[in-house]
Amino acid sequence: MTETKSRSPEYRMAAGAIGGLREALFHDAFAYRPMPPLPGDGPLIRRLPRRMREKAVWTPHALVVLLALVVFLVGFNRTGYPIAELLAVFPALAVAMTLVRPVGAFWVSLLATPLTAFFGGDGWPWGPTTFLAHLVVLVVVAARTRPRTGAWMWGLTLLLGTFMENLVWRPGTTTVGMALTSAFALLVVAMVQIRREAEREVTVQRSVTAVERDRRTLLEERTTIARELHDVVAHHMSVVAIQAEAAPYRVENPPPELEQAFVTIRENAVAALTELRRVLGVVRAEDYQAPDAPQPTLAQLDRLLANVREAGLETEKTITGAVRELPQGVELSAYRIIQEALSNSLRHAPGAGAKVEIGYVLGGLGLRIVNGPPTGPVKPSPGAGHGITGMRERVAMLNGDMTAETTREGGYEITAFIPVQAGTEPQSPSQSPSSSSSSSRGESQGQGGTGGVRLGKTDRSDRSDQTKHTTQMDQVEQAGRA
After folding, report:
1. Which run of H or E residues covers position 366?
2. What is the pLDDT of residue 169?
3. Which of 81, 142, 234, 323 has the CB geometry, 3.0–4.6 Å to 150, for a possible disulfide?
4. What is the secondary structure of 176-208 as a DSSP string?
5. Mean pLDDT computed over 284-288
6. DSSP H/E element including 212
7. Total Cβ atoms within 10 A of residue 208
8. Using CA atoms, how far apart are residues 149 and 42, in angstroms rounded to an integer?
């Protein structure tokens, strides 16, 4: 049985450093990695004319090629020896290689330095040609890679210069200048890279935050809609349960099958109310309190417009078509859409006027709320866009369509169409659900509504059954109010 010896921290640090060096400068050193063009939406390029933008994105490439040409001309004019003129090609080639093979360009520049210094008489160890070429290579390669790669290149450059100055018979003092100049240049490049990476992370984080904020706003709006529609749905289900309970008393000697059918309807309605309360309890906030007043409808629109006028927004109301009573969910959603649109006009268009148009058409209800351009200073609003989300959710819940866009005059316009099926509309405005509920209750208790049948006319005269029936209806009403 062999025991695995634990490595010391120094060993692991050295192994990690060697692995980083291998990954940065030796792994696929001569791989083809072309330099990408600049983004066309940069802060400087986007200010240029459109024709110049297509060429301005290649500015770094042109600059690198120009520096390669300068390096070649400097090395070519240093001396008249043919071999020196030939060796001037290598530093220029290393600069040009940074466009396609950046790490390979560093190795070419590093190996060309002793050759140019020894055979070309350019200076020892760094002459004007090799100094400029190697400095350009370090900056370009560091800008195209990571700061750690730039640190490794600077270390190898310093090692080569120290070796050439101290272990070769020709003395020189240019390594210190190369080390200081390249360190400063690489430090600037690293700072730019770190800042660019930080800005990129901030941009990504802002995008994620914006997406999460939109999702949270969407959930909050859906929760609000669910709370508001709870009273509407619960009221209708309560009416169904009460009418199903009272229906057998309206018919003399009903068959057992009919009685059982009404019992089943009532049980299903009560079960639906129970499930509705349970679901609402999940989405209800801890500090939520059920409203005491009924949910608003389009009948209360004049009061809303009066309040808006008092707040400083001049409004005009136009109604087209035959006004009729619509389902409570449609009435509530239409009222909330108009309310939110007028609130946005007050917030984002101070001093402007607004128009509210309501169209009763055969297939549903059309809404149009438009305001003019602001005439006063607009204060920043951190919640901009949340109201539009709530409107869209209400319209989408009712299978409608909605558009929200700016007008040519500089204002804002919201249009919505909510379809209403003919079978879902109330038959007459006088037969509201509340009146139906009260009449059903009165008939079931034997108080006699219009056209109703008193319990005294039936053969159901058992006092205990009547008391039990009344108690059950009270329980249903309490469940509907909850």
Report:
1. strand 364-371
2. 60
3. 142
4. HHHHHHHHHHHHHHHHHHHHHHHHHHHHHHHHH
5. 54
6. helix 175-246
7. 10
8. 26
Determine the average pLDDT of the residues in 326-332: 87
Q: CA angle 267-270-271, nearest 5°?
A: 85
Residue 445 has pLDDT above 50, yes or no: no
CA–CA distance, 121 with 127 (Å, rounded to integer): 8
**Does pLDDT of 224 surpass 70?**
yes
Q: Residues 7-19: what's their mean pLDDT?
A: 82
Residue 381 pLDDT class (50, 70, 90 cuts): low
Report the C-alpha gap between 75 and 109 in whole angstroms.
Answer: 14
| Nearest C-alpha neighbor of 126 from the set 158, 169, 85, 81 | 158
Structure tokens at 464: 């205990």
A 10 A CB-CB count for 18 gives: 10
Task: Name the token pair of 387.
Answer: 């109201």
β-bridge partners, 125: none
Average pLDDT over residues 231-240: 72
Give CA–CA dist 372/346, Å, rounded: 11
Q: d(Cα 74, Cα 85) in Å, to the nearest integer?
A: 10
- The predicted pLDDT at position 283 comes to 56
Is 290 strand, coil or helix? coil
The gap from C-alpha 10 to its chain's centroid, in whole angstroms, comes to 47
Decide: 111 and 42 in contact? Cβ < 8 Å: no
What does the block give as tokens for 425?
A: 């509309």
Q: How far apart are CA 288 and CA 280, in angstroms?
A: 11
Residue appearing with tokens 């200048």:
177
Q: Are 336 and 228 in contact (CB under 8 A)?
A: yes
What per-residue confidence (pLDDT) applies to 157?
Answer: 94
